[in-house]
Amino acid sequence: MALGVKAVAFSYVTHVLGIAGAVLVLVWCVHFRGGLAWEASNKSLIFNIHPVLMLIGLIIIGGEAIISYKTLSLRKEVKKLIHLVLHAVALILGIIGIYTAFKYHNESNIVNLYSLHSWLGIGIIILYGIQWIYGFLIFFYPGGTTTIRSESLPWHVVFGLFVYLLAVGNAALGYLEKLTFLENSGLAKYGSEAFLVNFTAIVTVLFGTFVVLTVISQGPAENDYSYSAI
Amino acid sequence: MALGVKAVAFSYVTHVLGIAGAVLVLVWCVHFRGGLAWEASNKSLIFNIHPVLMLIGLIIIGGEAIISYKTLSLRKEVKKLIHLVLHAVALILGIIGIYTAFKYHNESNIVNLYSLHSWLGIGIIILYGIQWIYGFLIFFYPGGTTTIRSESLPWHVVFGLFVYLLAVGNAALGYLEKLTFLENSGLAKYGSEAFLVNFTAIVTVLFGTFVVLTVISQGPAENDYSYSAI
Question: Which residues of A touch B114 (CB under 8 A)?
């Protein structure tokens, strides 16, 4: 049973929060943290690519990929292609974003994979990849039998939302971890940068919330243009 | 549409994960961190009450409160009372748990309410309280009209799960924050305590996942002994 609200109404809020989140993370990494660079003697500029790609790629484009299938009034085949391509973009940007975290660590002699954020992050990107490959094979090409597709769909939605919510939660862990490091190095706990990072985290959590609200609300019509798996 | 799996099957996994989480947090706070105390010259012992009460109270008892309504084969009135009382216990333990964090900060001259964990925590406990009061007034005593009750129910479930997932995510933030502080003070990043805390966090996230899976699965019978709001 879906919530008695139009999904498209929630989707507008999702878009606005997504734009706000993208602006906030760029203001943080470019204005406060000195910008982005693939190669630099100031290794922090390499790290700065990480939050930008993870938020704009995995979280925002990934969220738009999820709600595109629910809110667009297009033919099923077209929506499926948009859903698949947006998720592929999200996944690729996510993988590059994770690579930059390792690159920063390795070039700065910081050890890898000790924190909860890193552990969950590796798990999430693997699950996201498995989910994408399963979706491609069963729902796109070559495609499973009708039985497999109809029995898989609720699990595809539930597992997809599970992985997505883990990603949103892990983004919050990332903001907190980085800000705690900065505060331990002297950044003001009540300063403007600390508030900016915390508000970016809250906007990220709200974006994830509205993605889920969009999914559990009513699609454009009670036909196969939409899904209502839960 | 619910998942085609019996909720009670998921609920067994939830119980086991809950017991595992409770044991892990006690091993951490008692064995590794020196135990719990309401008054102590070693202020860390006051802090140690915080993770124990938040996990066992708000997260585990709160999670059991959520799934009790879905899985028990009892009369609706009995289940409602169990649901209400367990949530009240979770809420009270959560409030005491938050109080101990402030008490530790104040007695150790640490500033309050600068971190994302603390901001979200205050928001979550307020929303949890509002949700409990609304549930009490509309579904228990004096009770709303039939229309209000039936229109509220999907929102009660969705908002309740939203607040609960925020609480689970915020627990993960808490583990990461505390462990980062300890590691900055010299705790080994790959030591047994660091691994214990990260595994406790993962068990907590899995517990929350199985609470949600229980809720979106099939109750004991397709009658009013269960709800299927989403």
Answer: 183, 189-190, 194
